[in-house]
Design brief:
Structural class: alpha+beta
Radius of gyration: 33 Å
Strand content: 15-25%
Low-confidence stretches: none
Mean pLDDT: 82
Strand order of the largest sheet: 3-4-9-6-8-7
Length: 790
């Protein structure tokens, strides 16, 4: 049998003897690496899936909608400089009825790309088949919509197409790069139950819309090197006479915007959050190993006395730290890959890719392990270096106590009022301030991670409360196919269950300020509107100006504009008038790029009489079903949205799945907190074992000895928790700033539940660790401890 060298046998014995300490180090390492691998795999997987999807299924670069144009116009568009391919098609929104679902449903009917496999915005088939050519009653359903309703090939639904009810049979499910993220026209969040996409044979849909020789939507692919802005400008000149509100690039396409925003946020959460976790883990590993190796001072002296060189001894103790870190790192890598696979399933529910596999690159996995290994080396080396600097005889002696002198406690005379145990605890902390500060910092960082872990849920709940309960007070929003007289709103007031109606005018416009511009929807609200108010993030209501506009602060930042400045608004419908409008105020909103004006002023800017495009309804909940049935019978209505149902779907899907990710982070943060507190207590026991045993011999009771040890840890934990809450709040503010996009902003808010959870988890870890250490103190072998030189 091969006999291991002496130092390797010692290493194995040390690993077993210090298994509790090293297990905590491995746990912290595993949590840091697993967080890194999971979040990074999400970012890399989403980026790879998008690029593969866009390329293979030929996602277009420029889009345009119009009222109706002859087929010859598509040929003229194809001849524009910089255009590589053109897809002319028909598309419309319609109310639908899905068997077994009694709430309003809106569908977007889109002509199937032709030929399959070569057209722009091509469709992949997940199950079943594509509708047959010329089939007027067959559709391919978006897989999210089909899954939400349990629709399978062979099932049917009904839709109002061009004012006529038509029965449609689902032949299959699938998706398109144009609808990776499906959001309805008036929606903010995806709601697969109430809004979906159906693809239909192009000729059949054109016939149903009375557009056999025309189209109402255009998609373009650009030639390599073409300038999208120049192509859009030429295309607008061509399409404006046919009722186009203006072409727009991929960067303004709704699905791409949402997907790109998610990937940008994943880039932040996939770098910042795991880096934060990994940095905390590295600090804790450094702190723990530095103190752990310091306890090996006498053994280092013995090894030097037996002739081992400094390099070999240093390598031995570095191996001790690296063993724990590498074990934890490998476990974290495997755990992160497993969690990444589960996270892929969550993402697939919202971003409908043909294939989404979350995988992390070897470079990133190696980087995470390298950070932990570096932390282990940095933690172990200073203590080893200090011990190696001593002569063997000096190393084998116990470390001399520091020079004690009267501290603040004694100078103020407070020590006379304290019992001996409390005096010892406070003196220990006073006389080793750097060690105490490192312990408090470790506890604070663990607490801060818990705060950061729950911040996302708090921010989303605050967004829903302010934006969709305080600002929006309607029960139902009705969208009309075209702008109508305000009489249409008054007519809705006579329907069953309607208690209050407010009509609004929504107009597309491109706002410009200097060289900056943005395509937006301008909301014209009625003076004194109650069902849709302008409310900022703090819950304050902003008055609607008689003239001028109110902008969201996000839009004001994009345009580089402030209250008192003037912007240029080019309205993209009607006579396409251009107006200079004063910015009266800005409002801090969490969602969207809001532009608000008086309804009368907006109609005047558009050069039209009083018109509305949507209506908000407050209704009697007991008569909702009857109201739904009547709304389906009105051909002028293109869609109906229920506010509470949309919020409920959001909370039941997005927030619930977000909680899964947050719960993973919370588990990791709790494990790190437990590892920090437990290792701090265990190392403190190792450092003070001889002192505690001496006190027991001198007559101190077990309870008093335990109080001395755990009192110190309790004070450190108590000091670390409030500091951790403050650090966590600061980190949340920094993270919110990094995650902010043009369309979403996380409000900086922390609930009482988050504060209680973070503080409670650290306190619980301290209590549990204290109980374990107290058990060890009660079973302390006084004779054995007093015999040791350490």
């Amino acid at each position: 049998m091969v006999r291991l060298p002496a130092l390797e046998r010692k290493l194995l014995r040390d690993l077993w003897r210090l298994r509790g300490h090293l297990a905590a180090v491995a746990l912290v390492t595993a949590c840091g690496v697993a967080t890194w691998v999971t979040m990074r795999s999400a970012y890399e997987g989403m980026l790879e899936a998008r690029e593969r999807y866009y390329t293979r299924w030929r996602f277009a670069d420029v889009f345009a909608e119009l009222r109706r144009a002859p087929a010859s116009l598509a040929t003229r568009a194809a001849d524009l400089p910089g255009v590589a391919a053109v897809q002319a098609r028909t598309s419309t929104e319609a109310q639908a009825v899905v068997p077994g679902f009694h709430e309003p449903v809106t569908v977007r009917l889109v002509a199937l790309p032709d030929p399959p496999g070569g057209a722009l915005n091509d469709v992949f088939v997940r199950s079943g088949r594509r509708p047959l050519r010329g089939a007027a009653d067959e559709v391919l359903a978006a897989e999210g919509f089909a899954s939400a309703h349990g629709l399978r090939p062979g099932d049917s639904l009904e839709a109002v197409i061009n004012g006529r009810w038509q029965r449609l049979r689902v032949t299959g499910t699938g998706g398109s790069p144009e609808y990776v993220h499906v959001i309805g026209g008036a929606g903010v969040f995806p709601d697969d139950l109430r809004y979906g996409v159906l693809w239909m044979d192009g000729a059949a849909l054109a016939a149903a819309l009375d557009m056999r020789d025309g189209f109402n939507a255009l998609a373009l692919a650009l030639a390599p090197g073409a300038d999208a802005r120049e192509v859009i400008a030429r295309l607008d000149t061509l399409l404006v006479p046919w009722g186009s509100p203006g072409a727009y690039g991929r960067d303004e396409q709704v699905s791409h915007q949402m997907l790109d925003g998610e990937i940008q946020q994943d880039r932040v959460t996939g770098v910042v959050v795991p880096t934060l976790f990994l940095a905390v883990a590295a600090f804790l590993i450094h702190n723990v190993l530095a103190r752990l190796i310091a306890l090996q001072r006498a053994q280092i002296g013995v090894l030097k006395a037996f002739g081992y060189g400094n390099g070999r001894i240093a390598l031995h103790y570095l191996e001790l730290g690296l063993a724990a870190v590498l074990a934890g790192g490998i476990a974290g890598l495997l755990l992160g890959l497993w969690l990444g696979a589960g996270l892929a399933g969550i993402y697939q529910r919202f971003f409908h890719f043909p294939e989404l596999v979350l995988r992390v690159s070897a470079a990133n996995a190696a980087g995470a392990l390298a950070v932990c290994v570096a932390a282990a080396g940095a933690g172990a080396w200073p203590a080893v270096r200090r011990a190696l600097a001593l002569a063997p005889a000096e190393s084998m002696r116990a470390e001399p106590p520091p020079q004690f002198r009267p501290r603040l406690l004694e100078r103020l005379g407070l020590h006379r009022r304290l019992p001996p145990t409390a005096r010892m605890v406070l003196r220990n902390l006073e006389r080793r301030p750097l060690r105490a500060a490192a312990s408090v910092t470790a506890v604070a960082l663990a607490c801060a991670l818990l705060v950061v872990g729950r911040f996302g849920i708090d921010a989303l709940e605050e967004t829903v409360r302010v934006q969709f309960r305080e600002a929006r007070r309607d029960d139902v929003r009705v969208a009309f196919r075209e702008a109508l007289s305000p009489e249409a709103a008054r007519a809705l007031g006579s329907l069953p269950g309607v208690l209050q109606v407010e009509g609004i005018r929504v107009a597309a416009a491109r706002l410009r300020h200097g060289h900056r511009s943005k395509r937006v929807a301008v909301f014209g609200l009625a003076p004194g509107a109650e069902l849709h108010r302008i409310v900022d993030a703090d819950g304050r209501t902003v008055a609607l100006p008689a003239e001028g506009v109110v902008l969201s602060r996000s839009l004001a930042r994009v345009l580089g504009i402030a209250p008192g400045d003037t912007l240029v608004a080019e309205f993209l419908e009607g006579e396409r008038r251009v107006r200079e409008l004063p910015v009266v105020a800005t409002v801090d909103e969490s969602v969207g790029l809001g532009v608000y004006a008086s309804r009368e002023a907006l109609s005047r800017w558009l050069g039209e009489g009083p018109r509305i495009t949507d209506a908000y309804l407050r209704v009697d909940a007991l008569q909702l079903d009857a109201l739904h049935a009547r709304l389906r019978q009105i051909p002028a209505i293109s869609g109906v949205t229920l506010r509470e149902a949309t919020i409920a779907t959001f909370l039941d899907t997005i927030a619930r799945n977000l909680r899964i990710s947050i719960d993973i982070l919370m588990v990791f943060a709790c494990a790190i907190a437990a590892g920090v507190v437990y290792n701090g207590a265990r190392i403190a026991l190792s450092e003070h074992a001889a002192t505690l045993a001496s006190l027991r011999v001198l007559g101190f009771r077990r309870g008093e000895v335990t109080t001395i040890l755990l009192g110190e840890q309790g004070l450190l934990t108590a000091a670390g928790i409030p500091l951790g809450l403050l650090v966590g709040y600061g980190l949340c503010g920094w993270l919110a700033a990094l995650l902010e996009t043009d369309y979403y902003r996380l409000p900086l808010t922390l609930s009482g539940s988050t504060i209680f959870t973070a503080a409670g988890a650290v306190a619980a870890a301290a209590v549990a660790s204290g109980a374990l250490v107290a058990w060890r103190v009660r079973h302390l072998d006084l004779v054995a401890v007093l015999k040791t030189r350490e």
